[in-house]
Structures are given as C-alpha cells and as structure tokens.
TrEMBL record:
Protein name, UniProt field: Adenosine deaminase tRNA specific 3
Gene3D superfamilies: Cytidine Deaminase, domain 2
Any single biological process term in GO: tRNA processing
Record Pfam families: dCMP_cyt_deam_1
Cofactor(s) recorded in Swiss-Prot or TrEMBL: Zn(2+)
Gene name of this polypeptide: adat3
Length: 346
C-alpha cells in the first residue's frame, strides 16, 4: 500500500484482521433503564404549548431533561396525533385513581384524553445504541459524542493508523515471545510516543526476578529510566529496552514533587498483549498514560473484564482504552502460557 508500511514485516491485510473497540464506562455500556410515567392524548393541538407550560409547572420532571414532553403518535390517522407526558407514576398523587382530574388538579381537564402508562428512559443516553433503544420507548434528546459512535462501529482508526498500531503491537508480541524463551509468561508491552511516532520502551513479563515485575510495570519503569529515573535494572533481559529521548523534552526529569510536564507517561500510548491487572492499571493511572491498547482480555483484567479503572470517576486521571488490537496473535500467546502454573494477571 503506502511506502512507509514496507518498513515492517506484514501487509496492510494484517491490520484488516482485527478491529479495535473502545472499552467504555459502565454508564456508557449499560442497558437503558426505564421508569413508568403517565401520558395522555392532547385533544386540541392548539392547546399544546399551554398544556406543556402547565405540566412543566405542576410536574417539572426534574432530572429527566432528556425526555421530550410531547410525542407524535406512531399510528397515522389518529384523532389525537400528539401525546404529552403528564408525570411519573411515582409522582402521581394517587396511583389507584388514574384520571386527568386526579393528575391535574386545577387544570381544565378537557384538554387531555384518558391517561395511560408508558415507559420512559430514566437516564440521558450517552451512546448511539443507548439512544436508539431509549427512543423506542419515548422521544429522547441525545448529545452525541461522534468519536464514541464511530469507535463503537470499530471505525475510529484509519487504515494507515491501524498499520502503525499493528506494528507497535507486533513489537509487544515479539517481546512476549522473548520473555517466554527465558521462562517468563508470554506477555509483552510497548510504550509509544504517538506524537513522535517512536517506541519509548519495550518490556515483557519478568516475574522470574520479582513478583511485581509484570510486563506493564517493567515498561513503566523503563520509561522512567529513559527520563533519568526508574528503580530496577533489566539488563539481563535484552528484549526489555528503552529509547532515550531524542530532544531536550525531558530536561526537567521526572520531577515528582512539582509535577512538571511531561510526567512519566503523559501523552504516551501503551500497547500490551493482554488486558492489565489492577496493579498495572493503577500504575498506568499514576504514570498518566495517554491511551491503552490491548490484544486480548484476561480473567482479572482491570480494563473491562473485572473493573474499568480507566473510567473510574473518583480517580484523578482517566483515559481511553481499546481492545482487540492483533487479537488473534495475542490470544495465541496465552496458549504458550497454558502450562505455566502461575497466578493470573500480568
Ligand atoms: Zn499486572
């Protein structure tokens, strides 16, 4: 395809073999919750705005601003083409008596037909799938995040972007295999500076030395070393490497106290063959990773399977996570691990 892609082994077709999907927050991925409400036909269309004003003042629908007050009836030819949401069933004065009189004391009752119960979405939709489901029940407003919509279709990354992502994850797969050769679990990770399009650090599982040396922890330490910090020495693992910065962008060093920028992984992407565990996920939060891409899920994974650390509202750093990059090759690595009797995680 493009000349620059010839630099790495493989073809553009390889990058067509996988799709990266976003790992969204629980709020973005949950089912649409419905609550019951009373609606009624509007007898005289001309009174619609007056009715809506009165209803808004009697039953303001607090916290349900996403719900439209009036809807058009789906069936054509109805004598009353518009229906209005009167109130939530839970807000109705007496649930046993369902009449316009009882629901709307003080409002002239002949403006509305017989009330009936409908289900309306309890929360504002955050994604297009949620919006489409919610709208089947009652018209709902939706402030679309176009990037999320495109990402959910698996179309966020262009073919040239995917080719580059493919190359980075291949480096992680290669590192995983190198670690496996040394008796470690076959898990590899790569930290990339996407702005400079360069690999900052490559690491693999090193738990033969230290129980905490998961591939991601190794990588973060190597990034810190590239900035003049770091705690560990991985010299006995030739596949674990870091690239010193090419400019003076890290002249301040990893200044933990002042929080000078960039800090460890600020603006960087992580490619890791397997979904990180909680420890690694928290290390990525603390090191201010930009984005995370992983190949395949893991039972104790903290980016979608068991937890969604990256979307945790009470943490002070959140980031995007995508799964499925080189999924097949990353899944194949786990078969290399099958006979290793170690605790899971990475
Ligand atoms: Zn881990």
């Amino acid at each position: 395809m493009e000349p620059q892609m010839k630099r790495w082994k493989g073809s553009a077709c390889d990058a067509d073999s996988w799709v990266a999907y976003p790992v969204l927050s629980d709020e973005q991925s949950q089912d649409v919750e419905l609550i019951e409400a009373f609606a009624a036909p509007i007898v005289n269309k001309k009174e619609t705005s007056q009715l809506v004003r009165e209803l808004n003042s009697l039953y303001p629908l607090n916290g349900l601003q996403h719900i439209k007050r009036v809807r058009a009836r789906k069936e054509k030819g109805s004598p009353h083409p518009l229906e209005v949401l009167v109130c939530l069933v839970s807000d109705a004065p007496d649930m046993k008596v369902v009449s316009v009189d009882s629901l709307l004391p003080g409002v002239k009752p002949d403006g509305l037909g017989e009330p009936f119960v409908v289900k309306v979405p309890a929360r504002a939709p955050l994604t297009r799938p949620q919006f489409e489901l919610a709208s089947q029940h009652w018209p709902t407003s939706f402030h679309e995040d176009k990037q999320v919509t495109v990402a959910l279709r698996g179309e966020l990354f262009s073919p040239p972007q995917k080719a580059v992502m493919h190359m980075y994850m291949m480096s992680a797969v290669t590192a995983a295999k190198a670690g496996r050769e040394l008796g470690m679990e076959a898990v590899g990770a790569v930290v990339v500076d996407p702005a400079m399009e360069r690999i900052v650090a490559v690491g693999h599982d090193c738990r033969g030395d230290h129980p905490l040396h998961h591939a991601v922890m190794v990588c973060i330490d190597l990034v810190a070393r590239s900035q003049g910090g770091g705690c560990y020495c991985f010299d006995s693992y030739p596949a674990c490497q870091f690239t010193p910065p090419t400019s003076n962008m890290f002249q301040n060093g990893p200044d933990l106290e002042a929080g000078s920028q960039p800090y460890i992984c600020t603006g960087y992407d992580l490619y890791v063959t397997r979904e990180p565990c909680v420890m690694c996920a928290m290390a990525l939060v603390h090191s201010r990773i930009g984005r995370v891409f992983y190949g395949t899920g893991s039972a104790d994974g903290a980016f979608g399977t068991k937890f969604k650390i990256h979307a945790q509202k009470d943490l002070n750093h959140r980031f995007e996570v995508y799964k499925g990059v080189l999924s097949k090759q990353c899944e194949d690595l786990s078969s290399l691990n099958d006979h290793i009797k170690k605790d899971s995680g990475q």
